[in-house]
């Protein structure tokens, strides 16, 4: 239904479809790629902490690296994509780098340094591809349907994240608990994602000449606009208040004394919740405002952090925590990008998205390191409550920065 009109459909046609063909194709690429990525991600925290005996502080450094250490490459990728007017090419390079990194894990073995280097390469790929991909979504969708488009894309992405840990468990069971088999299978699936990108995604090219040449000066000028500055600052504050997934799952596993064999299913539960809620919450954001939905999502994150050391226990705690954690992602991930798109000029759309994502990723790097240190110094309960307080402060600050009177449309 969707792939029959891949290209640059008219706005009226886009409104008659749940999403445009290009958005659906990008969602298919993300779905397959996330199966590959989550096969590795689901077992990595347990492998590093229990297998390699890393301390919480050391794990915080690795976890921060996983998202933030190569964050500046997001700006490079976004700027180059705008400069050469070929977002698909830059995204393809990023997807290919992440695929190759899966084979790098075979050579890393039990070396923490080598694992960190391979993770950095993988995140370099993600850094290069994320902004061009999200820019293609905004350029393939009418402004009033961006929440729905990002919701559908993130739902497809989260379906891949839902399947990834299950595939990893199946491979481990079939291969006698061999991590090498997981890495090879993950690589093969990642290659399929690159093939889908090449065959089905179309670069959105504007036939009109670019009004403002793309240059370092014009890119820097983005931050001269007050709404963009506020949005970047808000993204940094929210990133600084967000603890990595691995920490949440490790704390939950310790709290309920979950066996190692069940650990990957925590990510499956989160992804299932995300999958079910991403599209409805994206559509809701288009109707009632993107900022209220995003702030409500961060409010659920406060509940997650408090639940980790609250009165509940057992399977009820697991179900409620992963359900709320998935709701947090569904209400915030794509909604932030939908909020950003209309504020950015088309010729610098990818660069602007990259700047916002880079700020958030660098803040996330700091957050992971600080939380690991807090866990080790104060204990997990105090660290989790401090994280919850940090999210509350970030919500208040974001509401003040991005209120309608500040010039950001919800």
Automatic annotation (TrEMBL):
Give the residue spans that cross the bilayer. 21-50, 56-81, 158-175, 181-201, 231-252, 258-279, 291-309, 315-340, 361-378, 384-403
Which residue ranges does the record assign to the Major facilitator superfamily (MFS) profile domain?
22-406
Membrane association type: Multi-pass membrane protein
- Please give the Gene Ontology molecular function terms for this protein: transmembrane transporter activity
Establish whether keyword Membrane is in the entry: yes
Highest taxon above the source species: Bacteria
Write the record's keywords in alphabetical order, separated by commas: Membrane, Transmembrane, Transmembrane helix
Q: Where in the cell is it found?
A: Cell membrane
One cellular-component annotation, GO: plasma membrane
Name under which the protein is recorded = MFS transporter
